[in-house]
Amino acid sequence: MVQDFPRYDNLVGNGDTSLPEQCASPLTLQHPIEDAERFVRQILLMLFTSGNSPKFIIFTFENTYLPLIRVFRLVKQRNCFTMTTLQDINDKIEEFKPVVISSLKEISELDITCKSIIEQQLNNTNLLNATSIIKIQAVIDYMYEHVNIGNWKEVRLYLRKTITIASYVRLLGHLKCSTHLTNDVIKEGLKIIDFGILFGCPTETEPTLLQDCASYLHNALTPDDLKPEGNIQTGLTSDMELQNKSFNCTVLDVIDCPSMETFLKNYILAEKPVVLDNCINHWPALTKWQDQNYFIKLAGLRTVSIELGRDYTDSNWTQKLMTLEDFIRNHIFAEGGTTGYLAQYQLFDQIPELKNDIIEPEYCCFSEEDEDEHIDIMAWYGPKGTLSPLHHDPKKNLLAQVVGEKQIFLFSPEDSVYLYPHEHELLNNTARIDPRNPDFRKFPMYKEAKGYCCVLRSGQMLYIPPKWWHFVESLSVSFSVSFWWE
């Protein structure tokens, strides 16, 4: 029922569930009440888009009357409820402004033109308009060109921090120029944020600036927009077993949750790989991540970088930005077409909500550094058949298998000469051998290598010592998390 009450203030907080006397000839809406929350939202949407401005709303379900003044305090202005929500989000995000202003000292090397544009827009956010957005976007585009010149590792940090700060200002401008907090406005805001996260870097004054802004926006999405469209498969079983025909391959030991002392003595110090069982049974991810809809609901609108192609040594290999939902729909379960892989990706820094589903293994505490060592946490998410060619990494690695199964081959650093590493400087940590089907005519010395292998299953972890060569193939849809430390 929807009715206009001239004196609704007298009803506030009285707890009365009887129909007020003022309710004459109420409007009855014929609607199946299968989802009360959705029903209420549809009623509010109808009111906001109509010419009427009711002061009070009463809903009745099976002759029970609920004064919703305790839930919604509506005023006369049309669309006031939506506008207030937009203002609330804008106010929350603008609370970071003093900290962002203080972070400008971190980009002191920036040229005077770009810096003045950022300072002018940041100091006068109430004056942000379409022209302001064009100016700040020009700064972002200019910085983007600079960070994509040369080796990514050699990019000056102030350039990336400028992208972070400018993206924050760009987000404020986007919200200031919006009249309603619609889902389209939120989606565009998340795109702005993710670009800043992907190509920028954290500032010292507010390391999680853009991530916090993303959380505010994502929480404002309506439940309907978080529901996946259509069906998403959830069966994640493999139809392959370990190929033991590989020459000189010894199946790795599997040990049950070893003590810290045992792991340190027998594997860390001995630099020996091993499969660990029953060490991550307490992770919420082991159950939550089995349903791919979970990722869509939690982060489907977030933009991520996806590797396209057989593997990074292939000439056709490339990368593309897309939303996580598009990646799941077009690459996780889609058969045929180009292989897509979210590989070696700092997903948990970008979307901290996902990090709540995992727990850093205690074994990572064995560090060569005296101070607390930073742990690099990487996500590996892809369909059946994704490959990481035979390569080695400089750090210790605990690879946790959360979803699906992977077949893995490992070789000691002592066998490097038998594995034919690429001669090119950019690929000298990658070998030309495919352990599944070695070409002995082309690589005859490979027969001298002593390999190890395993199928890593959901709930298990593999310890890979530094410099150990490893080849990884997913046997099903797979999600792995790697922990790297010195």
Provide a short characterization of the protein structure.
The protein is α+β, with helices and mostly antiparallel strands and 486 residues long.
What does this structure look like?
With 486 residues, the protein is an alpha+beta fold. 31% of the residues lie in helices and 18% in strands. The chain is built from 15 helices and 16 strands. It has helices spanning 36-48, 80-94, 97-102, 112-123, 130-147, 157-176, 183-199, 209-219, 223-226, 260-268, 285-288, 293-299, 324-332, 347-350, 352-355; strands at 58-61, 64-67, 249-251, 254-256, 274-277, 303-308, 318-323, 340-345, 376-382, 387-391, 396-403, 406-411, 451-456, 461-464, 469-474, 478-485. The strands form three sheets. The chain has a nine-stranded mixed sheet. A five-stranded mixed sheet has the order 3-13-12-15-10, with no helix packed on it. It has a two-stranded antiparallel ribbon with strand order 1-2. β1 (58-61) and β2 (64-67) form a beta hairpin. α5 packs antiparallel against α6 and α6 runs antiparallel to α7 (183-199). Mean pLDDT is 82; it is low at 1-35, 48-56, 58-84 and 234-240.
Jot down its keywords.
alpha+beta; 15 helices; 9-stranded mixed beta sheet; 486 residues
Secondary structure layout:
Layout: H1 36-48, E1 58-61, E2 64-67, H2 80-94, H3 97-102, H4 112-123, H5 130-147, H6 157-176, H7 183-199, H8 209-219, H9 223-226, E3 249-251, E4 254-256, H10 260-268, E5 274-277, H11 285-288, H12 293-299, E6 303-308, E7 318-323, H13 324-332, E8 340-345, H14 347-350, H15 352-355, E9 376-382, E10 387-391, E11 396-403, E12 406-411, E13 451-456, E14 461-464, E15 469-474, E16 478-485
Parallel strand pairs: 3-13, 4-5
Antiparallel strand pairs: 1-2, 5-14, 6-7, 6-8, 8-9, 9-16, 10-15, 11-14, 11-16, 12-13, 12-15
